[in-house]
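Page 47, continued from p. 46.
Same chain as before, 154 aa.
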Amino acid sequence: MDKITLQRIEKAHPIIREELKEQYIEINNKLPKGVRLRFSHVYRSNAEQDALFKKRPKVTNAKGGQSIHNYGLAFDIVILFDKDNNGTFESASWSQDQYWMQVVIYFKSKGYEWGGDWKSFKDAPHFEKTFGNTWKTLKDKETFLDNGINYPKL
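Result:
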């Protein structure tokens, strides 16, 4: 498995952390040899979110505190390919090809909302599980500290 992704999953909200790790391993086992899923982002601090918000061309409409990533309940994906069959997985793709859509179908079946289904600002790499919350309700929740991160109590 991809060690970078497994480290990123450790920063996911504790309510989804273990299931997300299991699901990540399961979907990778379903992908063919030479194709691997990576989570490019999971938890994102408000400062990291603000920096992303200021990027051009625009990649997000969410300022710090307005993204589900800021609460550890979202992840973004990229598909990696081992084009040389040497185990390096150096080629990254954000194309919505058959492997991408396999990942989309899988995580939607596990209850995640896919940003590619959004009507206004489509975000194809993005998945989230909010447990019925919005960033506004998550922002106002009492928090607890885990792994040095304050997560909302759900």
